[in-house]
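Section 5.1 Outputs to date
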Amino acid sequence: MSNSHSHPQQVSDESPLRDRNTMTNQANSGNNKWLARFQHHSKLLMAWVEPRNFTLYYANDAFCRLTGINAPTGNLHNQGIHLFDLFTNVDAKTLEQLYRRHLLALILRDVYKINHTQWRFLDEPVIATLDNPHGGEPHSVQFWLRSEHLNVERINPEINEFSDIDLSKQPIQQIILNPTWEERLNLDNYQVRGQLLWEGLDVTHQETIRQLISLLIERDSLLRSEKFRLFDQKMRSLFRADQILLLRVKRQEVKLFTSENDQLIQTKVYTWDSLEGSHFQEAAQANQVWIVANLESHCQTECEQALFNQGTRSLLLIPLTVSAAEAETPSQNLMGMVGLTSDQADHFDSLDINHACALIPALTAALRQAAQSQFNHIHPAVEWRFLEEAERRSWGLPPEPIVFTEVHPMYGISDIRGSSNERNRAIQADLLSQFNLAMAIVDAANQSQPLPLLQQLRLDLSAYLERLDKGVTVDEEVTAIKYLRDHLEIYFEYFQDCGDAAVEAVNAYKQACDNPHECIYTARDHYDRMIYEINEQLRQTWERWQVRMQQIIPHYCDHELTDGIDHMIYAGASINSQFTVFHLHCLRYEQLRAICDCARTCFQMRDRFGTPLQVTHLVLVQETTVDIFHDEQTEKIFDLRSSTRDTRYEIVKKRIDKALDATTQTRITQPGMLTIVYSSQAEWTEYQQYLRYLAREGWVDSHIESSTVEKLQGITGLKFARVRILPESEPTVGVEDQDLTSTAKDLSQSSHPLL
């Protein structure tokens, strides 16, 4: 509070610093030194405050530590720190109103002799926000002012704010409930002796839990982008976690979602049986908050291995259940699970369990509500329409499909060429290694104890090796390992008695198979990591461009990672009313630039890691619009309406990346090249202009190959153009720093008839 405010005159004849020194000396003279212990070890925040301007006079160690004030003796009298300087949401006016309330009680007691031992309005705490002096999340502090020890006198008895009221006849309840009593006070006409006692508690965790509960029980869905952003931020802050996991369990299907860039992303779908023996099932069976102190020591399932490979070392799992009446199956009342991850082992503790338990009812309610909306992330560009539908349903109206009409589709794919063949080679390498180790065991045992059965087993293994050496079939990965388990590994106990060479061979086999897959998985692990790295780099590149594209005009975009990345864009006036043909052409050009940048990302990985995998890039052009809809039966967020034009587009999408050149019978997509598939001359005219712009910017070569796409099932008349994507040989203007206005200006000045 500024010094210009009027306040009662204060007489400081009851110095808290003098009292403290006297009490401290007395306490230190005793054996217990109890006051010194209170001062240095209590968590209670305490300070003496001067009423006239709320300047801090003295504070204990806990107060100084939390606020970052350097005051070894606690004496702050000469530092000029005001109480309202410390808190971001408590200003001088708020403190003055609070002080008036306390002064009213003192005036009633000392001037009007109306004494009440339990003024409830004085016990109402204030929640204040304190910036963390050490960085990190702000602190929440709950505090009270204590004024019972103060004395007040009226300076001029002739000035009476309550002359029109006989206060002695007023019921105390009316004084408590009527805030106008505080506003009547003439502060200049009172003299106050002493300082206010400020007491507080650090309630950051409790306040975060309260805010989370309030957020979770709100009627709108947890999937709403802004709500999920707040939820993700507060959960990670409360538990000091790196990431949130959400599991949605429906019958035997388990969908795993993770948080990324403040959004909820579905990463994997598992069967419940595939989680057998996992920490997730253990937490569900115990039906209690579950801590995984060290994931590395127990990481048996594919789901847990994937988390471990991404850097997770400890987990906190919160099972969420429903009643038997709500359960989808009688044997399973687990609705889902919230998990928190850390890259540090032994990160979570019993305090985290207590916090998690406090959130369970609200988390259950939020997850139940999210499940009713298919537990899918709603893209911000179309979120408004889902909120409208939610509002309709809240009034008891029947569900209606969410439809966006006449939107322009833009489909593109960056596909890892030959990934299935490369994986088959990895399977073949691992199986050959494991069968050779198996052959070594049989040979060692046969040398020790030559038996006809061992000789026949050796012949079988030899035949298997010959077959594997020629290649592997689709089911070989499973059947070959099963063969070894059924015809070799069951004899390990016997082989242990066949001499040192056999024992050594068995140990070598076991050591090679000592991993969660329980088989040799070296080449496949290298392949998996390579695919993951390519996908991850493609995803990051595409999402950087998506941020830029959303700045042109909000539009719906969905992408999927398999062996590469494919994306689907829908843009139109039904999604954003500001949409124009200019926005459409800008988006189409940016889509091509983004795919070229994805290709350059692949070039860099190829040069850096020497990977044999190559990536092809394709864009499917369609000038005519489509209609998309969402209802309770759609498998994805949006499906196309079943009109002829929409069905044709969906068929082309599914088959075009493997289409052949009608002339050469080779694939229309080639590694390191951008392929554009179109139907009409108008489409080609537009994209021919874009290719000229790309060549001007140095993204692609100027030479264009073109031909006709061989007839697909039910689809004819498609053509394609193909151009080589250039590596980034020298510094050029990139996605981060290029102003989109330059591209927009170029497009607007083009002689293109559609522009």
